[in-house]
Amino acid sequence: MKARFPRWLARNISTFLLALVLAVIAWVAAVTAADPNQEQEYSVPVDIIGLASNLEIISEFPDRMKIKLLAPRSILDQITKESGTIQAWIDLSSLEAGTYTIPFQYQIETRFRPVRTVDADPASTEISLEELVSKTLPIQTEIRGEPTLGYQAGEPEWSHGEVTISGRASQVEQVTLVKTILSIASAEETIQRNLNLLAYDETGSLVSDVILNPSEISIVQPITLRGGYRNMVVKVVTTGQVAEGYRQTSISVSPPNVMVFSANPAVVDQLPGYVETLPLDLTASFDDIETILGLNLPADISVIGDPNVLVQAGIAAMEGNTKIIRLVETIGVLPEFQVSVAPDSVDVILFGPLPELDTLTETDVRVVLDVTGLEVGIHQLTPEVIILPERIRAEAIIPENIEVEISEVVEPTPTSDR
């Protein structure tokens, strides 16, 4: 019996193998039908590895690559859901400054099988590398302008004298000058400021894309008065009183300060801190004043520049209120109507400059009711107060409303003689 089995197996081995192959084909067909192969394209970010710290990429290159895969749908779905399953990079290890054609590399996690790459684009890219260098230059500092007359500039103090320029070799090599500028034009006090540094090439053009360390420096620029000079406040001197019923509202002087000088500095130092104008006479003034006045200075002291100043004094009428009584006037009455008003007079409270309130005449203030277009009947109207002086206004009318009765004119009945 045992001898027969090997002979039977030898006679039927081909049939057995054929059945096994058919079974595998059937299983693969079943699996494929349930989870068919598909193509899908992925956009993958490209990493840079191996770039030396003293090099910089100066050319543009694709930062993503497209990878098309063929795999069962279930595997493609997993790759889509999980980030980082496909990695792409370019390797710049051991490269020096120059231009190279670098292949793109990629990798799919091994747990995703079976997967076949249909296409990967781009396959390579051209990369230009430039060396990063640095150099040190002295900082050129420039002071422009002059202080205000009577002041002088001392020796400036700068926080740094040198600057380090860093960046790509082609940019750093262009820099021949690093400078900053301070303007002291019209300065009257010590200047403390931070100033930006700027890099220039030999033609005077600004060089960008370099790093300056420090990028700014600080300066202390002393500004002091010269001997015999002094900046003085101007004080306006007035005499007299404004007109009755008026008041002085303001006074100003331009310029508010003047620079004085004496060949004897001690004389200047003895001044009280201000200089006075010649007197401004306000007697009986009732309007604003604008005039030029000289300065009252000792004989041995002079003014630098214009010795006169502009003085402006504001003068305004004192304000108050008063009550007047006015009859109510009606306008807009048609000939066929007659009008009666109640009350026929009102109290008007006026506010404004006292001198104008005191000189009001009967015709300066009127109280008017306009009945234009009104029909027969009784109406409640608010009168209008008409005031001729522009600076006087009505604050209140008592009462606020007037009763107006409009009626037809009754013609008298003619009588006959007998």
What's this entry about, in short?
By secondary structure, this protein is mainly β. Helix content is 13%, strand content 51%. The protein contains five helices and 34 strands.
Which descriptors would you attach to this protein?
418 residues, mainly beta, RNA Polymerase Alpha Subunit, Chain A, domain 2, 5 domains, 13% helix
Portion of residues in beta strands equals: over 45%
Q: Main β-sheet: number of strands, strand sense, barrel status?
A: 7 strands, mixed
Q: What structural class do you assign from the helix and strand content?
A: mainly beta
**Shape category:** flat
So what's the CATH class of the largest domain?
Answer: Mainly Beta
* CATH architectural category of the largest domain: Beta Complex
Let me know the number of strands. 34
Low-confidence stretches: none
Number of domains: 5
> Within the CATH hierarchy, at the fold level, what is the topology of the largest domain?
RNA Polymerase Alpha Subunit, Chain A, domain 2
Rg over alpha carbons = 51 Å
Proportion of helical residues? 10-25%
| Integer average pLDDT | 89
Oligomer: single chain
